[in-house]
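Quick entry between incubations.
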Amino acid sequence: MTQVAEVAKPGTNTEAYLRMYTQMVRIWAFEDQANQLYLSARMPGLTHMYSGQEAVAVGVCEALEVSDKITSTHRGHGHCVAKGAGFKAMFCELLGREEGYCRGKGGSMHIADQSNGNLGANAIVGGSMGIATGAALSAKRQGNGGVAVCFFGDGATAQGLMYEVMNMAALWKLPVIYACENNGYSEYTKTAEIAAGSLTARAEAFGIEAHKVDGQDVLAVNALTQSLVARARKGEGPFFIELETYRYHGHHVGDINRTYYRSKEEEAGWHADRDPITNFGKWLSDQGLAPEAELAAIRADVQAEAEAAVAYALAAKYPDASEVDMHVYAATDPATLQAGA
Amino acid sequence: MPFDVIMPALGMAQETGILVRWLKEPGDAVTKGEPLIEVETDKAVQEIEAQASGFLSALSAQAGDEVPVGQVIGLIVESADAVTGGAAAARAAVAEAEAAVVERVAEPEAEPVTAAAAPAPAPHPVAEPIPVGRLFASPKLRRVAAEEGLDLFLLARAGYAQPWHMADLDALRALAAANAAAPDQIGTAKSQQSAPLGQTSALGHVAARVSGAPCAEFLDWMAVEGKIALPASALYASFAAAALRAAMPQDRIIVGLVSLTDEGLSALRLLADPDHARLSHQPGTDAAATLILRDLTDSPLTALRPLASDPVPVLTIARDGGDLRVSLDYPAGTLDDAAALSIISGLATRLAEPLAHLV
Amino acid sequence: MREITLSKAVNEAIAEEMRRDPTIFVIGEDVAEAGTPFKVLSGLVEEFGTDRVIDTPISEPGFMGLAVGAAMTGSRPIVDLMFGDFLFLVMDQLCNQAAKAHYMSGGKLSVPLVLRTNLGATRRSAAQHSQSLHALVAHIPGLKVAMPSSAYEAKGLMKTAIRDNNPVVIFEDKLMYQDKAEVPEEEYLIPFGVANIKREGTDITLIATSSMVQVAEKAAVILAAEGISAEVIDPRTIVPLDEATLIASVKKTARAIVIDEGHQSYGITGEIASRLNEKAFYHLDAPVIRMGAMDVPVPFSPALEDLTVPTPETVAAMARRLVAGEMIHAL
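Done. Structure below.
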């Protein structure tokens, strides 16, 4: 069964709302800077912009604890910020610097923030689905009430792994929420051309409760996620959410001339009518919870912080050459490898 | 005494032949006239008969090798005792060959040297039976040999089949000990031994062939019309000096002339600047030779490699059929290759048009 | 000392470790009541329950991925892959995810899991159930690869594999499960990266993995009767590889054959032979020879299948030729 989430009541959680707003702005600012780094040829490799989907990551992650786990995708900056990562270490990672979250060894597509429960972005489409499900298995076995959220795009529903892990998650009632960010496109192809039938019906075929929600409405996303997380902690999982959203940029930062698969009118339409930050800001000021001036100040502060972080990262040192063959293997305490240990 | 088995010249313009295979093994009895090797030229594969009777020994070329015409590829020794493995015998055999140059020249040979179809011309007393090129040994044997200062080439010369392994180390040590006890008399062989494996020897060599008719006609003409009986060697000495001077201008050129005739090797005659003198009167000198000229044209020999490591270049001129073969052997450091080529071609040009160059 | 089967040795190792560490669980197809089709895990579910011995659907990529996520989050899974041939199914989760997570995260994420699977032909199981694919995973940085050659190695290596904080793939030879060997009652672990010289010799070194160790030992007996003294070495783990022991042996004997049941081309034999070439070159009196399985898919017919793997006779024959100084390949 699908449900449309209720909108949360105004006036009760101003702090939480402002936090959500700030987090969305942080994602927006981060991506803006990252895009400029790419366009000015200062960022190595490719990256994939999350701009336009801010409400999805924030709405979901604001419903999670730090100890809850998420897995991310190649379009992972939004999840990373939403789960609590800091700008400096993120930019350092994108620029391959030693202070990056992964000491420069992962880059944009593998950025992970283990201390905040982010088990990592993944360059393999659907590649992290097993990992999220396994994290849920750990949580269940450890009995700590933890929940795992697996972010993936509509394109990943074409991967066989998704069905294997949903099947097992359903069989074993694992505390995992499969969050499908349906932004209408699987790389350069419309979703309708790559996914037959209904996305939610796929989950329902396994007996998994599935929901659809407007991914651009942060409150709706957050409310839905809160309720599902609470139930998952009690062992009622797994769950599946399809979040309707939109990515403003191309598939990756270099995908600039894209009118062949997506019209400028369509893009403009989403910017104008469905922008999550604009709309939430409008809602906040309409509800009298935060005047536009305060929101503008938040935007300005965050932007300044992002700019400063970029400057910091550009000046930060690269990892030493000796690190190239470090971390291939994790160390094992030799004391544990003795009989009787 | 041991008889050289050589790569025969089977055609006029043949420089090398491919040893297709040996028809006998080292140690086998060999009878003169029976087929001994198969040789391939660009024309065909031919069986070559043994030119002596005895026992086959000291193979220094293998099936598939491409060997310069005239090079020694094995020995036929008198007794089975002298066959491969006897280091002293093998070395003695070669030393005897070297010393017996003159006697061998006098050996009666049925075929005239000028017969183009001669299946096996007079044996060439080549002093060094050396396979130049790769020597195949296991990495360990190479290393141990290098550590002990043993020259792997000794195994080749003694006819041990390649590739060599550690199992051949004892034989190598024995050969080396024998070699050290009776020092090698083969200068060129030594210089080749000291050259790194796989590289060319330290002695440069260029050769050319030119028709002998022009010089012969000229000398005839001088004798008949000019009524002057010039020894050919005078002509050659003059031309040699001229060619050298043209390639490397210098004040004095002393040509050390040695001739080989029926009476044997002549004494060394030192001629000063023979290219500046009249052919009939080339002044002698005591000065050291700039260049040795060995004139074999009155002998049946068609080639002769240097016998000892002379410190100066050695020009050899010999007859081969109707042609004159000239070769220049020069120790490293005495000439560069460009100069050597210049000398040899200068000499060949003069021999081809003697009158034009004697003005 | 008691003798137990390889199957029992593996079972003991896993049971002992599961008693010691509650974060360990076994996951795979038919691992619980069935104890796997080879019956190696029989009894575990009775002792540890279905929470810790988890039967899965036939979803190799799925449960491999699950194991990776579980390992990243405080568990130590032992994944049971029924046949080594199914390695191809789990390659993305094993090689793109598990192998690289520690490196890609700059050392922050670890994946302490064991992938337990098998190898070995001559069981008449045809091409898709008879492969020895350890070379595939040995090639991937971040994975460790263990190859027990008897019940003794199986127990000791399994315990180390479970306690190692990295993804370890351990290959048992499916034809050896009922083979017995002496296995101590007292606890012991076999360290990774330490080869075992099973038989000392002076004329030639036979380096062999898994069941090829027995093949090499039998060849050594044949050769001994002919006066050829063969040294037999079992590397035990190919990643990490105890090069030093192999090189020292070849320096002593000057000759080596590497015997492995993976395909001869582009495999373990080539890698080890190449290292010996690089690092013992000046000590070689013969080329290092590879003897692997024939480069053919494993045929079904017994008349054909047995031709495709090294045997004591073929190993002895090659050793004989090398010792005689014969040229195996043309100059």
